[in-house]
């Protein structure tokens, strides 16, 4: 068919015979892509009188936006909290490998570490687009060291710090470099946390509450100052109590400022949270649920001993503990496993499960106009999945970057 | 006129679809072109209720039509009358309309040729009757001020020039219009009645649309269904050989 595209000569690809996730529903529609973005076919048809250059039959697959993992500590032997000489190649390796899990964008996460580690590692992390080389990096997630001693979990006690003395300046001195930082997890009950939260929020950094013994009003105050996320709900915080729900109470708090939503990360690997608890959280506040892996270096490798920053962890099946203890430390779950487990445990719709790993993290980071959806003009980062939510192919900016059977298109 | 009466809305739709398919195959499309009829003015092209959106979502996106072959009147053209005149020229240049498919309004209008429209009118700008505006309000959340009040439409005369006309009428609310269209005289207050003077018309309707017709009329045409069904069975396909296609597919005329 002659095509007379007045806007651009770039090739137009039409993905047919598929169901796409749009407007919160799986719809039988074609997906059109041009120049790395999702294209509006009606506009193409009427305004440009254009048509597809290439039509690809998706054989009835589900097409969903690429997954976004906002808490991942490493994988395949790479630990983001270790300042090694080949750190850059380590992060490249992980970003390439997680394509097969359906992750198209992620936030490399650093656990509590000494300042020297931050000073060495952070300048080596840069926000960059994904592609054939690997998933895109949205920015670092710094989990600690400004967290509570009582809820340190797997974080090393000797590295914990406070910002009582100099508030935000202390934080800046510890991390050294904030340019590429996207999320900071801290404990809001710490003195002067409000100032710090306000300052971080002002710089566009998402503040998350976690590893904390805060009560509900401390948590609500933190939200009022700008906090928008909860790090791995239920884990490393006070348990829900009916007279003081603690941080968990944020899910149904009436003190959240108008127009804002509190999001909460959940590691749905079947280990960190009992399915019943997962269901309670999901039913209380479905739109805030963000699936995260909290994966550690041992993810993708055989069971045994691996590092997590300054600690040694032991992996046995899906369980990951600080060596010699029963303290959970991260997980070896992959994102697509989390999505499947979440869907099974809660019995929610496929659309809901997929959005918890794509739309919600994008909304958390304020990038939903670009990522996390298949809306027109969004980045064409998407996945082809079968009906059981196994990833068959991963696309970034409209290019296939991974396919199930390992042979290319 | 052939009056085809099916029991339900979906059966009527299916019959019409099969008939159109057979006609297309018989037409032997090559440089065949499509024309689409009338649009309200003032609606931006990408408004979800614009004709462009309607045609895209319900028709164009499901078929492999080349965008150059789509001609929809542009309600936002700077010179509306010129837009209409050009449309008429394009129809002539394409060799005239082979088959015109349309519905009727509860007031018996064809396209947007409201009651009182000249039966020899051409493509032009038309003000919409209050009935039509009320009927369209449902697409604008019931807000009457948002509904367009004018439309570009093909004229009754334009449609009469087509070599064949098919009108789809379903639902009880169209019953009175159908009665006026086929059992009463030719009248510009019920513009569909103009097709009584067209040599080749097919009306496809469901039971509910016949509620105002004489029992005699309904029985007569139902009795002809055996013969009329030969128009949709066998169902032809583009994949058949040239020899079969060139045979006339119309076993009779009325």
From TrEMBL, chain A:
Pathway: Amino-sugar metabolism; N-acetylneuraminate degradation. Substrate binds at residues 154, 235-236, 243, 272, 328-330. It catalyses: N-acetyl-D-glucosamine 6-phosphate + H2O = D-glucosamine 6-phosphate + acetate. Zn(2+) binds at residues 143, 211, 232. It is an enzyme of class 3 (hydrolase). It comes from the Eukaryota. One of its GO terms (molecular function) is N-acetylglucosamine-6-phosphate deacetylase activity. Keywords: Carbohydrate metabolism, Hydrolase, Metal-binding. Pfam families: Amidohydro_1. NCBIfam families: nagA. This is N-acetylglucosamine-6-phosphate deacetylase. The lineage of its organism: Eukaryota, Metazoa, Chordata, Craniata, Vertebrata.
UniProtKB/TrEMBL annotation, chain B:
PROSITE patterns: GLC_GALNAC_ISOMERASE. One of its GO terms (biological process) is glucosamine catabolic process. The keyword Signal does not apply. It comes from the Eukaryota. Catalyzes the reversible conversion of alpha-D-glucosamine 6-phosphate (GlcN-6P) into beta-D-fructose 6-phosphate (Fru-6P) and ammonium ion, a regulatory reaction step in de novo uridine diphosphate-N-acetyl-alpha-D-glucosamine (UDP-GlcNAc) biosynthesis via hexosamine pathway. Deamination is coupled to aldo-keto isomerization mediating the metabolic flux from UDP-GlcNAc toward Fru-6P. At high ammonium level can drive amination and isomerization of Fru-6P toward hexosamines and UDP-GlcNAc synthesis. SUPFAM superfamilies: NagB/RpiA/CoA transferase-like (SSF100950). Residues 43-198 form the Glucosamine/galactosamine-6-phosphate isomerase domain. CDD domains: GlcN6P_deaminase. It is found in: Cytoplasm. Homohexamer. This is Glucosamine-6-phosphate isomerase. Its EC number is 3.5.99.6. Gene3D superfamilies: 3.40.50.1360. It is an enzyme of class 3 (hydrolase). Belongs to the glucosamine/galactosamine-6-phosphate isomerase family. The keyword Phosphoprotein applies. GO terms for molecular function: glucosamine-6-phosphate deaminase activity; identical protein binding; isomerase activity.
